[in-house]
Amino acid sequence: MKKKIKAQMWDKMQYLFRKYYDRMIHAAIYYDGELDLEILAKAYTYMVERVPVFHASFHNHFLKPYWTENNPVDAHEFIRLTEAESPETVEAEVEKFLTGEIDVHEKYQIRVGVVRCQGKDVLCHLQNHMCMDGSDTKAFLTLLFEVYNEIQAGKPIDVVVKNGDRSHFQVYTNFNEADKKNRKKFV
């Protein structure tokens, strides 16, 4: 049986606003060389395995919406290589990839595209905003590059991925007890 993950307030809010914007986080990273796609797949597999909502499907139950994990994780299923015809067409390919949307029912809430042209790559990262916010996405990508570099160097992976409380109550973790109690009255 698939493991269930409780949907949090932000998941519900993002889902409710799906008709007003695309719910996606879009990132493009430009390289002067080519990425090793096998190492990239291993790095993404490592990272996505540690963030369960990235390999989960959302179920909008009226009373208690939830996610169900999809296993095993294989980044080859969500990474796509596109060869651009010329340097002039690279941006069109990047835009085409990044303007896509991921349905909440899909197996993965993340897609990766590599647009390659004349020995240069653009890494396109598309993810469901329900999974994490922009600052966590930035941290995720930073750790992804650390994992990539460790794999490339033949080192064991020594990267810890943040994966804790996804609820809105996490904003209170650094408050003292009196402030926590006072602020929670408003929730």
What do these coordinates show?
The protein is of the alpha+beta class and 187 residues long. It has five helices and seven strands; from the N terminus they run βαβαβββαββαα. It has helices at residues 9-16, 37-49, 90-98, 134-152, 177-184, and strands at residues 4-6, 24-30, 56-59, 66-69, 79-83, 110-117, 120-128. Strands 2-7-6-5 form a four-stranded mixed beta sheet, with helices on one face. Strands 1-4-3 form a three-stranded antiparallel beta sheet, with no helix packed on it. β3 and β4 form a beta hairpin. α2 (37-49) packs across α4. The longest helix has 19 residues, at 134-152. The radius of gyration is 18 Å and the shape is globular. The chain starts with a strand and ends with a helix. 27% of the residues are buried. Mean pLDDT is 88; it is low at 165-173.
Index terms:
187 residues, four-stranded mixed sheet, three-stranded antiparallel sheet, alpha+beta, 30% helix
What is the element string, with H for helices and E for strands? Answer: EHEHEEEHEEHH
- Percent range for β-strand residues: 15-25%
Uncertain runs with pLDDT below 50, 5 residues or more? Answer: 165-173
Helical coverage, percent range: 25-40%
- Report the structural category: alpha+beta
Rg over CA atoms, rounded to whole Å, is 18 Å
Total count of strands: 7
Distance between the termini: 34 Å
Number of helices: 5
Largest sheet: 4 strands, mixed
Q: Per the principal axes of the C-alpha atoms, what is the gross shape?
A: globular
